[in-house]
């Protein structure tokens, strides 16, 4: 909370099947990579203040798997998992990503390509999420929306309670 | 919650790559249909068909100017799409704000240790 934000995330939809997320960080890339791939550190940011991360498993090797689960403050549980396909330490990480909240989740696995580029001690992070289908891509975006809606509902509840 | 798709909503209208191309061209300003035909390299009946779909959802508007019909973009009709992605963007923004805090601490620790591995 104390840190000054380096800017907001930029999300674009380059094609029907893709999501591109971009953000710059005021830190060298080896630290961004460490924060991205160390479970104790991931647990501290991945929740996005929307709940508690209950599972954070990272087996960082090609063919190794990862799994993140969060219980949002309203009780909604969202889980994601995948397998690492390509690892270039501090620079590039390719993995699959399955959103566990949709039917036939495994068939809709996306491929995530994380890239870190450093210039003058600052790091540009990009995540390209490639889905096999447009529907899968849309469901993925909805997963963020549902957690966000939950978040908004909780806030509303708090405000309502404070007025009572 | 999740968006409900209908046959005539903005999401459907922009699902077609050619229609997105039309919107891109119109984003630069009003155009007659002939300009779109040239820029897209499509036959006029096809362009007109796409324009009809875009007009049905209000993404494109048309006005008569002399003998020409000029088409223009109406960004407000695309707002549902913008809002939809916005929520996802907000999730990542908040995630990254937390990541900033972690990174700041990692940098402090590295400075204290006097090594940068």
Write up what this structure looks like:
The complex is a heterodimer of chains A (164) and B (117). Chain A has 164 residues and is of the alpha+beta class. Chain A has a single domain (10-163), classed as START domain (Alpha-D-Glucose-1,6-Bisphosphate, Chain A, domain 4, 2-Layer Sandwich). In chain A, 28% of the residues lie in helices and 40% in strands. Chain A is built from 3 helices and 8 strands, in the order ββααββββββα. The longest helix of chain A has 30 residues, at 134-163. Residues 1-5 of chain A have low confidence and may be disordered. By secondary structure, chain B is mainly α. Chain B folds into 2 domains: 10-76, Arc Repressor Mutant, subunit A (Orthogonal Bundle); 78-113. Helices cover 61% and strands 12% of the residues of chain B. Chain B contains 5 helices and 3 strands. Chain B has helices at residues 10-13, 17-27, 33-40, 44-56, 79-113, and strands spanning 31-32, 60-65, 68-73. In chain B, strands 1-3-2 form a 3-stranded antiparallel β-sheet. Chain B starts with 9 loop residues before the first helix and ends with a helix. The A-B interface holds A 1-6, 8-11, 13, 16, 19, 21, 23, 25-28, 30-32, 34-35, 41, 44-50, 134, 138-139, 141-142, 144-149 and B 1-3, 15, 17, 84-85, 87-104, 106-107, 110, 116-117.
């Amino acid at each position: 909370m104390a840190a000054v934000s380096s800017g907001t995330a930029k999300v674009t939809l380059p094609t029907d099947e893709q999501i591109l997320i971009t953000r710059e960080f005021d830190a060298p890339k080896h630290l961004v990579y460490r924060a991205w791939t160390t479970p104790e550190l991931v647990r501290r940011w991945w929740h996005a203040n929307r709940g508690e991360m209950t599972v954070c498993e990272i087996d960082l090797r090609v063919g190794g798997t990862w799994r993140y689960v969060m219980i949002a403050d309203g009780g909604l549980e969202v889980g994601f998992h995948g397998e690492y396909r390509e690892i270039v330490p501090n620079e590039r990480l390719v993995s699959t990503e399955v959103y566990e909240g949709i039917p036939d989740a495994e068939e809709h696995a996306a491929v995530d390509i994380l890239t870190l580029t450093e210039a003058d001690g600052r790091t540009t992070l990009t995540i390209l999420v490639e889905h096999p289908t447009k529907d899968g891509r849309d469901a993925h975006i909805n997963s963020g929306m549902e957690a966000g809606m939950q978040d908004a509902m909780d806030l509303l509840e708090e405000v309502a309670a404070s007025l009572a | 919650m999740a968006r409900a798709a209908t046959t005539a909503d903005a999401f459907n209208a922009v699902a077609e790559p050619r229609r997105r191309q039309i919107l891109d061209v119109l984003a630069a300003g009003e155009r007659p249909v002939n300009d779109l035909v040239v820029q897209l390299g499509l036959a006029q009946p096809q362009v007109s068909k796409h324009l009809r779909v875009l007009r049905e959802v209000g993404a494109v508007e048309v006005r008569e100017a002399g003998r020409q019909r000029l088409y223009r973009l109406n960004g407000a009709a695309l707002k549902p799409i913008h809002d939809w992605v916005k929520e996802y963007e907000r999730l990542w923004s908040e995630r990254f704000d937390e990541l900033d805090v972690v990174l700041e601490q990692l940098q402090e620790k590295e400075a204290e240790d006097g090594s940068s591995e």
